[in-house]
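S.,

As promised, the 3-methyl-2-oxobutanoic acid run. Input:
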Amino acid sequence: MNILDFARRKQNGEKISMVTCYDHWSAKILNESAIDTLLVGDSLSMVVHGFDSTVHATVAMMASHTAAVRRGAPDKFVIGDMPFLSVRRGLEPALDAVSELMQAGANCVKIEGIDGQEEIVSHIVESGIPVMGHLGLTPQSVEAFGGHKVQGRNEGSAAEIIRQAKAVEAAGCFALVLECVPAELGRVITAQLNIPTIGIGAGSDTDGQVLVLHDMLGMDTSFKPKFLRHYLNGQNDIHSAVNAYHSDVSTGAFPSKEESYA
Ligand code: KIV
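Predicted complex:
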């Protein structure tokens, strides 16, 4: 998959699949999978670093994880997430951040929001860097939203998100992530844009879907928002494997003679 395939997929009605990827070992596994694209999302600040929101992600963090993913997944289209406020400090710092992510191996950058940063987004696009937009529940604005809440539930806020989606397209973005909006709003925006939409909690009519890898692998069984489907019981399977290893070590069953050097 490359940048040109996004528009082609939308035209042909072929869905785009995306998961987050933060590190080298999962990138190696995903490189051999059928998945279309990998997102080095700033959600890594929560999933990998244990913070309570994405506002703790830094450009250095994102660049380091992007480089690890690129080394593990040389064949995949990799999206680097612009972290908290990295676009809002002005053009030069924004370009420095974009430069770090692209030099770390990203194929494009993803930017949350559009209002007040249209010119910077256009400048990045005109500099030859593909930009993916991100609207709806944009987690970097979690404090302004009063929590991780579905956005665009009433007519006024839905109209606002539609307006912003058109502004994202007008700024030159090649695709748009729509996070946690009603399915009907996901459908309407997808129908009104020429660029593909990638949904997470945005219903089934978007042009593609993205999930956090750890979430879809069931690594935290206590985390089960409505939009999430578990494709593995990762937490329990890892517990079982590690407990089996612990038991074998305790009883002396591991290592065997065959697992020891003569
Ligand atoms: O950081 C992230 O994982 C994201 C997805 C939820 C779209 O932005």
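The first strand starts at residue 16 and ends at 20. The pocket of 3-methyl-2-oxobutanoic acid is lined by residues 20, 39, 41-43, 81, 177, 179, 200, 210, 212 (CB under 6 Å).

- D.
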